[in-house]
Design brief:
This protein has 20 helices and 22 strands. It has about 675 residues and is of the alpha+beta class. The protein is rod-shaped, with a radius of gyration of 51 Å.
């Protein structure tokens, strides 16, 4: 018998205990006024017919009494196929219908009901669905108790939920086990989550340590980088391969690439960030080392090209200058051998004199070539000792006083005592002997040659060899020290030169880390300036000042001397000289200008820090660029402090006082 919905008022059954329940007996239609009854019937019928939930009424045996259209659609049967049949008719055989019917009768007898539960059903079509079921008991007008079951299809919801759960599980697994450091952070700059790789990267034991950190202050080595990243994230919503520097717990600086994106709420408001870091510290170190190799190869390439050029020039000299005199020697020998009987004694003596002169010239040339070659190749024995330049100059002058007297040239030295340097006494003697000898060739009778101390610099001696001779043409001055030019000319009395003496002198001075310069004017004379480094006092505190402007070097030196009266201040006019002095003297501090001719302060810092000999020397950079970005970049490269011009003695004193590691005692 089919029961119409209008004959029943349905109220959910609410159990009072686990095994007991009470039935709610519904008032029949006679309890309502006629108009109310009609309206109630229409409402119930509408709900029954139009509900999206499948509804089913079953009796105590589980026989289906009534079903609504939604239930028919859910189980794939018509009401005619369902009503009058056991409710188990909708299930596949694999669901064990007999057991289900038995359980149903027991529950019905005890009036047990579950207000809401989920069940996975295999229908008679072998199609599986997930449903949410609500059970309740109702009573008809004639007193029959029926079970009302409401079914809501949640198959799609379950699939979606399961997929989401699986996705979240996979995400959590990938996040936790990824070899790449991953993180989530708040807009305020706190870490909300971090995986094991992130902990390992930063050197922390657990996430709670990280959670207490301020990202910009404690993780980024440069807080401005954090600001730049967040600005890009808010502007674009993501950052790709942003190169940053981060700090490990132990203070070690790492270089990383960050790829991250913003997290937004339903209203599009940014609520945080998440991303991945890639540690490229080793790669950057390798790139740096590779670049150094490239520079070294380039330097080697240029040096080899220069040597090759010099080799070609040397072969040219050998092929011409060494071969030419042999024509004369062999020619006169041939005459002496073949025409001996026809020659007078005077002729023989003259021809032998020609041969002797040519042979002596050749010997001098060969000796100079050998000297230059050994200096260039480093095969010459170079023994450095502490010497006084006065002794060397006096010996050179004394050895040539006879020749000077013969040429009626006044030769003297006023180089004082205690001009201390480290050098090779024999090679430096060769330098001054050669220079004085050259001056004697080109100084007229009645002229003068003086070897004198020109300047006593803070870290260098400047010695001059001055003559009042005929001078050197301006266009030829640059040729004097180049072996490939082989510049030579006869002296005032016809003296010959090899053209190799000054190149050899130049190489010797370079070996002593010095410089040589020529100032000359025709008819006035020549001044050759030799600059050689002093020996720093062993107990002094070496400080290196680097600036291409002499005035700034002097100013900074006065500042330093005011604070450190006993300091030994070294000067360098460019980066290359600064590197050389830093390696040689290992100064306590380096104070360098940023803008220099060869390379700037940033490159100087980079090269100093890449050399183990100079890596630990504190470097103060003085720059005219008042820029936080420039300052931060210099510090990132390794600068200890960056000062903006003009600097004051007080600023310098404060910085030097902060450099504790070098044990510098400042008297302010």
């Amino acid at each position: 018998m089919e029961i119409a919905a209008s004959n029943i008022n349905i109220i959910p059954f609410i159990p009072t205990t686990a095994n007991a329940a009470r039935s709610v007996v519904l008032s029949n239609k006679n309890n309502f006024p006629n108009s109310g009854l009609r309206n109630a019937s229409k409402i119930y019928s509408s709900i029954w017919e139009n509900s999206n939930e499948g509804m089913r009424l079953t009796d105590s045996k589980g026989i289906i009494v009534a079903v609504n259209p939604a239930y028919c659609w859910l189980v794939g049967k018509t009401s005619e196929e369902l009503v009058g049949h056991l409710f188990t008719s909708i299930y596949a055989d694999t669901e064990n219908p007999e057991k289900m019917a038995h359980t149903y009768e027991s529950r019905f007898k005890e009036r047990q009901a579950e207000p809401q539960y989920e069940r996975r059903m295999i229908l008679w079509t072998n199609h599986t669905i997930n449903v949410e079921i609500n059970d309740s008991y109702v009573e008809t007008d004639d007193g029959r108790v029926l079970m009302l079951a409401r079914f809501r299809d949640i198959t799609i919801e379950k699939l979606t939920h399961n997929a989401l759960t699986e996705s979240e599980s996979k995400y959590r697994g990938l996040f936790a086990n990824s070899v790449m450091p991953m993180f989530q952070s708040s807009v305020e700059g706190k870490l909300l989550n971090a995986n094991r790789a992130m902990l390992t990267l930063l050197g922390y034991n657990n996430f709670y340590e990280l959670a207490n950190l301020e990202i910009a202050r404690d993780i980024y080595s440069n807080s401005d980088e954090r600001q730049a990243v967040t600005e890009t994230l808010h502007k674009k919503g993501y950052v790709v391969n942003a190169e940053l520097t981060v700090k490990r717990k132990n203070g070690m600086i790492l270089t990383v690439l960050e790829n991250s994106r913003t997290l937004v709420d339903d209203n599009g408001k940014v609520i945080g960030y998440e991303g991945v870091l890639e540690d490229i510290t080793a790669r950057k170190a390798m790139e740096k080392k590779l670049q150094e190799y490239v520079w070294a190869l380039e330097k080697s390439k240029n040096a080899l090209a220069e040597l090759n050029s010099q080799k070609d020039k040397l072969f040219s000299i050998i092929s011409h200058d060494l071969r030419s005199p042999f024509s004369s020697i062999l020619g006169f020998c041939d005459i002496l051998l073949k025409e001996n009987d026809q020659l007078t004694t005077k002729d023989r003596l003259q021809f032998v004199a020609y041969i002797q002169e040519a042979a002596q010239d050749q010997l001098a040339l060969v000796n100079k070539l050998l000297d230059w070659s050994r200096l260039e190749s480093g095969h010459i024995r170079f023994e450095q000792t502490e010497i006084d330049l006065q002794d060397i100059v006096k010996k050179s002058v004394n050895s040539l006083l006879g020749l000077a007297h013969q040429k009626q040239v006044h030769l003297k030295t006023n180089v004082p005592e205690n001009i201390a340097i480290r050098g090779d006494i024999h090679l430096l003697g060769q330098v001054f002997g050669n220079l004085i000898g050259n001056s004697l060739k080109f100084t007229q009778a009645g002229g003068a040659i003086t070897v004198e101390l020109i300047e006593d610099k803070i870290d260098r001696w400047v010695i001059g060899v001055r003559d009042t001779g005929i001078g050197i043409p301006e266009e030829d001055v640059h040729k004097l020290f180049k072996i490939e030019e082989k510049y030579t000319r006869k002296g005032l009395h016809g003296e010959k030169g090899t053209g190799l003496g000054l190149p050899v002198v130049h190489e010797i001075i370079l070996k002593h880390k010095g410089t040589i310069e020529v100032q000359s004017h025709l008819g006035v004379g020549t001044l050759i300036l030799i600059t050689l480094p002093k020996i720093p006092p062993e107990t002094s505190e070496n400080i290196l000042v680097v600036d291409d402007e002499q005035g700034m070097r002097i100013l900074h030196t006065r500042y330093i001397k005011r604070m450190l009266p006993d300091a030994y201040v070294l000067h360098a006019s460019d980066g290359a000289e600064a590197l050389q002095l830093a390696q040689e003297y290992n100064p306590k501090v380096i104070i360098s200008d940023y803008d220099m001719p060869d390379f700037n302060g940033k490159e100087l810092v980079r090269r100093l820090k890449s050399d183990p000999k100079t890596a630990n020397i504190p470097v103060i950079i003085v720059t005219g660029q008042d820029s936080d970005a420039n300052r931060d970049e210099l510090k990132q490269y390794g600068a200890t402090e960056v000062l903006t011009k003009p600097i004051t003695p007080e600023q310098l004193a404060e910085i030097l006082n902060n450099i504790k590691a070098n044990n510098i005692t400042i008297a302010v």
